[in-house]
């Protein structure tokens, strides 16, 4: 049985907001800013992690600085079948350079976001994608300019 999502209170919201902006802030500094005991902060963070609200911590890397300035949005039509969205979604997600896969409803089945270093790198990734037996067709949009990318959630 699936657990219901439990709303978080104002203190939890503040903790998540701070951690999204700087997950390396020392607990004592954050506790002072939030005006709560360090032990309470530690307990709440652990509860948010265990509850899946905080799903992990990572360094925000500037892909452009690493040469990944070719961004493609690929619309994918897959062959329909039992649980195809799970099976095909996992295959697509395993392609290096694919950084997001969304199963969607409508004319296409998936929206796939790909980062590549250049057109040849992208074409290699597209070839891996389109050669899958479960893929019927794709349609690609190339991002001319990145206006905004932000994985944080507004709380």
What do these coordinates show?
With 155 residues, this protein is an alpha+beta fold. The protein folds into two domains: 10-50, Arc Repressor Mutant, subunit A (Orthogonal Bundle), CATH 1.10.10; 63-142, Alpha-Beta Plaits. Helix content is 35%, strand content 19%. It has helices at 10-21, 27-34, 38-50, 84-93, 119-130, and strands at residues 70-78, 98-103, 110-116, 135-142. A four-stranded antiparallel β-sheet has the order 2-3-1-4, with helices on one face.
Provide a brief overview of the structure.
The protein has 155 residues and is of the alpha+beta class. The chain contains five helices and four strands, in the order H-H-H-E-H-E-E-H-E.
Summing up helix and strand content along with how strands pair, one would put the structural category as: alpha+beta
| Total separate domains | 2
Widest sheet: strand ordering:
2-3-1-4
CATH superfamily of the largest domain: Lrp/AsnC effector binding domain/regulation of amino acid metabolism (RAM) domain
The CATH topology of the largest domain comes to Alpha-Beta Plaits
Element-by-element helix/strand order: HHHEHEEHE
Net shape = elongated
Percent helix = 25-40%
Biggest sheet character: 4 strands, antiparallel
Query: Kindly, what is the distance between the CA atoms of the first and last residues, rounded to a whole number of angstroms?
Result: 27 Å
- What is the strand tally? 4
Name of the top-level CATH class of the largest domain? Alpha Beta
Second-tier CATH architecture of the largest domain: 2-Layer Sandwich
Taken as a percent bin, the fraction of beta residues is: 15-25%
Computed CA radius of gyration, to the nearest angstrom: 20 Å
Q: Outline the low-pLDDT stretches.
A: none
* Number of helical elements: 5
């Amino acid at each position: 049985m699936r657990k219901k999502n439990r709303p978080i209170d104002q203190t939890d919201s503040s903790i998540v907001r701070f951690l999204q902006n700087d997950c390396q802030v020392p607990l004592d500094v954050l506790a002072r800013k939030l005006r709560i005991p360090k032990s309470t902060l530690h307990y709440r963070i652990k509860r948010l992690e265990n509850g899946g609200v905080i799903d992990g911590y990572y360094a925000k890397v500037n892909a452009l600085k690493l040469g990944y300035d070719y961004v493609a949005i690929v619309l994918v039509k897959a062959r329909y079948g039992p649980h195809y969205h799970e099976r095909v979604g996992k295959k697509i997600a395993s392609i290096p350079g694919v950084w997001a896969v969304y199963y969607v409803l409508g004319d296409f089945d998936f929206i796939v976001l790909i980062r590549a270093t250049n057109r040849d790198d992208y074409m290699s990734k597209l070839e891996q994608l389109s050669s899958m037996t479960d893929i019927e067709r794709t349609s690609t949009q190339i991002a001319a300019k990145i206006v905004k990318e932000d994985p944080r959630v507004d709380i």
